[in-house]
Amino acid sequence: MRFIMQTKTLTQLKRQIISLNEFEKKDLAEFLAEEINDKEVQTPLLTSDDEETRQQQLEWLKANREKYAGKYVALVGNKLVSEGKTIREAHEKAKKNGFHNPFLTMLYSETDVPFGGW
């Protein structure tokens, strides 16, 4: 029953959209695109294969830590989707590449000495 109600509502909305002017249609399109992106960001990256995905990420990080030392990287599984000097830069590049919820981290060289503070 719910599916029939949704289909009926969608048909009514489509009829109303036809009467909108070009500016209103563009505004609606932008709204819907943002709505879809918000949902994608809220969707968790890891699903039932959490452990497998984490293992892939750890293997990639170990194999590439020296190459990307001092940079932030964005991964999806064992695939590098972007890199940057800041976490924000890496995330923005990942989004431009179509990945809205990557795993983000900074890589350090094996020879880097961690700062402990005082």
List the quaternary state of the chains. single chain
Largest sheet: 3 strands, antiparallel
Evaluate the radius of gyration. Answer: 21 Å
Strand order of the largest sheet: 2-1-3
Strand content: 5-15%
Number of strands: 3
End-to-end C-alpha gap: 65 Å
Number of helices: 4
Overview of this protein structure:
This protein is of the alpha+beta class. The protein contains four helices and three strands. The longest helix is centred in the N-terminal third of the chain and has 21 residues, at about 20-40. The model is unreliable at about 40-50 (pLDDT under 50).
Brief summary of the model shown:
53% of the residues lie in helices and 13% in strands.
Topology of helices and strands:
Blueprint: H1 2-18, H2 22-42, H3 50-64, E1 72-76, E2 79-84, H4 87-96, E3 103-106
Antiparallel strand pairs: 1-2, 1-3
Labels describing this entry:
118 residues, alpha+beta, 3-stranded antiparallel sheet, 4 helices, 3 strands, 13% strand, elongated
